[in-house]
Design a protein that fits this description.
Elements lengths: L1 H14 L4 H34 L5 E5 L5 H12 L3 E16 L6 E9 L10 E2 L14 E4 L1 H7 L6 E4 L2 E11 L12 E6 H5 L10 E9 L4 H11 L5 E5 L6 H38 L1 H9 L4 H32 L3 H6 L9 H23 L7 H6 L3 H6 L8 H7 L2 H22 L2 H28 L9 H11 L5 H35 L4 E6 L4 H12 L7 E13 L2 E2 L16 E6 L7 E6 L13 E5 H7 L6 E6 L2 E13 L11 E3 L1 H4 L5 E6 L5 H14 L4 E4 L1 H38 L6 H9 L4 H38 L8 H22 L1 H5 L2 H7 L1
Parallel strand pairs: 3-8, 5-7, 14-19, 16-18
Antiparallel strand pairs: 1-9, 1-10, 2-3, 2-6, 2-9, 4-7, 5-8, 6-7, 11-20, 11-21, 12-13, 12-14, 12-17, 12-20, 15-18, 16-19, 17-18
Helix pairs in contact: 1-9, 2-7, 2-9, 2-11, 2-23, 3-6, 7-11, 7-15, 7-18, 7-23, 9-11, 11-15, 15-16, 16-18, 16-25, 17-25, 18-23, 18-25, 18-26, 19-22, 23-26, 24-28, 25-26
């Protein structure tokens, strides 16, 4: 071991210039891993915090019936075994509110009673900057939304009547966590103390209310607890959801963003490994003569191999430490405004990210360097005495025999076994870094397929350019000969650059697809004000008034008929007897908002059956179209008869179509059940209006005041706060995806530059010979440019084709988003790869082209 350590120190001192690119590849790769992991963890803190604020808890358990010992007993038993850190109770109900004195108008509101523990996440923000505390709600206090002040002509300090109690308005809600983000709101929000709500006489038998249990749970217990409660109450009116739920679009987008961030972390690992493999391979070939000398002097193969393995380990460790310092400098340079856009989340290097970066940098460096290092075993001392090409001789098989048995016997099974072990280890690292077996498997398969394609392309390129070896132009002829020459870097550059462009372009294409998907809902959803309880004879008046206030440039006002209904039976079977294929979607017995129309909306497509058209005549049996999830969860199919209770009136309708609703497009709302118009046209119902309100706060208030003045029964809901919160989450996800994608692109380019630049050491002796024979710098430069351009273009084309397949597979099967091929991006990427490889190859060889040949020939 003393010999190994002494030789390692001497080798490092003598070869540090040639190993600088190895050092750079490791440092850049580790810096990217550490900074990415730190950014990912910071982003997740911000995204999770915003997601938690949408329900004000980690887990929300709710029922449309009062809690009974029969229902709470299994819940309490499960909670006793769960890592629950806090509990809060809440009740929501729709009720009427009026001013205590001097007002004849009563308004429907969404009343919520909360206890002192509410909310666990998020902050209730009041207008004027007043701090919130539960003391504001105690002893008959109430917090209201600003639109209610306009509708009732009251202000802070005035008293309102809710049920059998009188409440004093003590503040105006500007932002509120835990507000429902899906479905139709029944009125403006009012917050009161939970005990006061229970004493107001609103929760008598038959009243409509939602009883909620909000839980603060340790991270590792959120999903198991949610899943278990759903399973226990699958066929009952009790549901559970977590902030991680993917039942709505915001949850899906957050999960996709996290999957993408993890995938990029794995890509950085592979890019760094490619650079390390390329540099190690060149370094080992340069050291063949030194290895032969050491063996002539009596050094064993094990001692020589241990020397270079230790050298690689020390370089990898040092490069990893420098990478951590680079990551720290990069994180320190993040502007404060960027952190503020994420709500002021703390950012910086984390201990787990540093540990992971050091471990992955050392592990990947050793794995990628191990296979090339095994070539030193085949270096024979006799070859040095004969003056043979050691690098070629180390790879050349013995000439004895040419049968398949002799070829099989000549295979290096140790190197094959080591390569297999390295591949298995890299798959493990892939799964660790990607955080998903699906993502790791998809990228690993793509890695293997593109590697095989690039290796085959190298053989094809060599054969295709053979006729050009007789070209009259010397640079072209010599470039072709150089591509064909044994031991040249053709396969190395194709593999390194092709795989690098494959990953970088694949990540970039995925980034574009993911940003398009995340941004789609915010771009398409325009309405932020909703008018409810519009009567039939008020439809034209409301539409005219709102359109006048919005002006000629305002969006058209959409009015949709709505009714409330419950499903009572399907195919003659009562609700309790129906099977449910997949849990987590709630009970079929809950109350639904339904509508009728003679057309599909822009966010709907038919997944099965046939939708009636505008010519559907009266007198036919009632027909209903169901949303796809109803079909999946409850096994309801085309042709089944469903019985509904619509405002106490029984209606039987046959299922004639199944609709797939794109919930991210919220312009037309979303309905689980849509009826043919004549089935519900005579039933009592109201209309809901979707409006893109004025941006100015005063103009929005005037619009609400005018509506209250002319149509006292119409309730206006200002949804800008809720939609703004959702928009903030989506914007942060887009920003995070863009930042991480940019880091991956920059890191990949730097690593590929190092891998290509390293090939200059192979050209020192060749350039010296050509210079001695009279070749000028311009001639050698043209030769290099042609050779590198051909390799870069081929690698770019294959990498872009692989990126196309990678983005399709990951988008469709891992992220579950719409896939867009982005041919312009991939074509530009292939051309830029050619330009980058050509420029880097020529510039990196500038020193070789200018160097005097005499010194090189003497050294050789």
């Amino acid at each position: 071991m003393r010999f190994v350590f002494r030789m390692t120190v001497r080798e490092l001192r003598a070869s540090w210039r040639r190993l600088v690119f190895f050092f750079i590849c490791v440092a850049v790769g580790v810096a990217a891993i550490v900074s990415l992991r730190s950014i990912i963890q910071s982003l997740r803190i911000g995204l999770v915090r915003e997601a938690r604020s949408t329900i004000a808890a980690d887990v929300l358990v709710q029922s449309n019936r009062p809690w009974t010992p029969e229902a709470t007993a299994p819940i309490e038993a499960r909670l006793a075994a769960a890592p629950v850190l806090g509990r809060s109770a809440s009740i929501e109900t729709a009720t009427m509110v009026r001013a205590e004195h001097g007002a004849e108008v009563a308004r429907m509101v969404e009343l919520r009673g909360v206890d002192a523990a509410f909310p666990f996440y998020g902050t209730i923000i009041l207008e004027g900057g007043a701090p919130y505390s539960h003391a504001l709600l105690e002893r008959g206090g109430a917090l209201v939304r600003p639109e209610l002040l306009t509708q009732l002509s009251v202000g802070v300090g005035d008293r309102i009547v809710i049920g059998q109690r009188v409440f004093t308005i003590r503040g105006v809600i500007d932002q509120e966590p835990g507000r429902r983000v899906g479905g139709f709101s029944l009125g403006s929000r009012v917050l009161v103390d939970l005990g006061d709500l229970q004493a107001a006489g609103l929760l008598s038998f038959g009243s409509r209310a939602t009883y909620q249990m909000l839980l603060k749970v340790r991270d590792d217990g959120v999903e198991p607890l949610t899943r278990d409660i759903r399973r226990m109450f699958r066929d009952r009116s009790i549901s559970a959801r977590s902030y991680k739920s993917t039942e709505d679009q915001i949850g899906e987008n957050l999960q996709r963003a996290e999957n993408f961030l993890s995938l990029v972390g794995f890509v950085i690992v592979v890019l760094g490994g490619i650079g390390v493999w390329s540099v190690t391979r060149v370094f080992v070939r340069q050291k063949m003569r030194s290895v032969a000398i050491l063996k002539c002097l009596g050094a064993s193969t094990a001692a020589v191999l241990a020397t270079y393995v230790l050298q690689v380990a020390l370089l990898a460790l040092a490069g990893s430490l420098i990478g951590v310092l680079l990551a720290a400098a990069g994180m320190h340079s993040i502007p404060a405004s960027l952190a503020e856009s994420f709500g002021g989340i703390p950012y910086g290097l984390t201990a787990s990210a540093i540990g992971q970066g050091l471990a992955v940098g050392l592990l990947v460096s050793m794995l990628f360097a191990l296979v090339p290092l095994l070539e030193v075993r085949r270096v024979k001392p006799l070859l040095l005495i004969r003056g043979a090409d050691l690098a070629a001789a180390a790879r050349r098989p013995s000439p004895d025999g040419s049968t398949w048995r002799s070829r099989l016997a000549r295979l290096d099974w140790l190197q094959i076994g080591t390569a297999t072990m390295v591949g298995a280890a890299l798959i493990g690292v892939a799964s660790w870094q990607a955080g998903s077996w699906q993502a790791g498997a998809a990228v690993s398969l793509g890695f293997a397929a593109v590697s095989a394609l690039l290796y085959a392309a190298a053989f094809a390129l060599i054969r295709l350019v053979m006729p050009l070896a007789a070209a009259p132009w010397f640079p072209l002829r010599h470039a072709v000969i150089s591509l064909r020459r044994p031991g040249n870097q053709t396969r190395v550059i194709l593999l390194a650059v092709g795989l690098g462009s494959f990953f970088v372009l694949g990540v970039r294409a995925l980034q574009n697809n993911l940003i398009s998907e995340v941004s789609a809902g915010a771009e398409r959803g325009g309405a932020d004000m909703f008018m409810i309880d519009i009567q039939r004879d008020q439809v034209d008046g409301v539409r005219t008034l709102v359109q006048e206030r919005l002006g000629a440039g305002g969006d058209p006002v959409r009015l949709v008929p709505v009714l409330r209904a419950r499903v009572t039976a399907v195919g003659g079977r009562e609700i309790g007897a129906l099977p449910q294929r997949r849990g987590g979607g709630g009970s079929l017995s809950r109350e639904y908002t339904i509508t009728y129309r003679d057309h599909l909306e822009a966010n709907e497509t038919i997944a099965g059956g046939r939708f009636w058209g505008a010519d559907a005549g009266a007198g036919r049996p009632a027909e209903v179209s169901i949303e796809e999830s109803i079909h999946d969860r409850f096994d309801i199919n085309i042709g089944d008869e469903m019985r509904f209770d619509v405002l106490g009136r029984g209606i039987t309708a046959r299922v004639t179509s199944i609709r797939r609703v794109e919930w991210s497009d919220s312009r037309a709302g979303g309905f689980m059940f849509v009826f043919r118009p004549d089935a519900l046209a005579d039933a009592p119902h109201t209309f809901v209006a979707f409006v893109k309100g004025p941006q100015d706060g005063a103009a929005r208030a005037r619009l609400q005041y005018d509506l209250v003045s002319r149509f006292p029964n119409v309730t206006t809901i200002d949804g800008r706060e809720i939609l703004g919160r959702i928009q903030k989450v989506l914007d942060n996800a887009v920003l995070g995806i863009s930042i991480v994608g940019g880091v991956a692109l920059l890191s990949g380019v730097l690593i590929l530059i190092g891998a290509v630049a390293m090939t200059k050491f192979q050209r020192v002796y060749e350039a010296a010979i050509l210079r001695t024979l009279g070749a000028g710098t311009r001639l050698l430069t043209a030769t290099l440019a042609i050779e590198y351009a051909a390799l870069g273009l081929l690698a770019g084309i294959i990498g872009a084709a692989g990126a196309l397949g990678l983005s399709w597979g990951v988008a469709r099967y891992v992220l579950d988003i719409a896939w867009h091929p982005a041919p312009g991006l991939l074509s530009a990427g292939a051309l830029l790869t050619m330009v980058l490889v050509t420029a880097v190859g020529v510039l990196a060889s500038a020193e070789v082209l200018r160097k005097k040949p005499l010194a090189t020939l003497r050294a050789e």
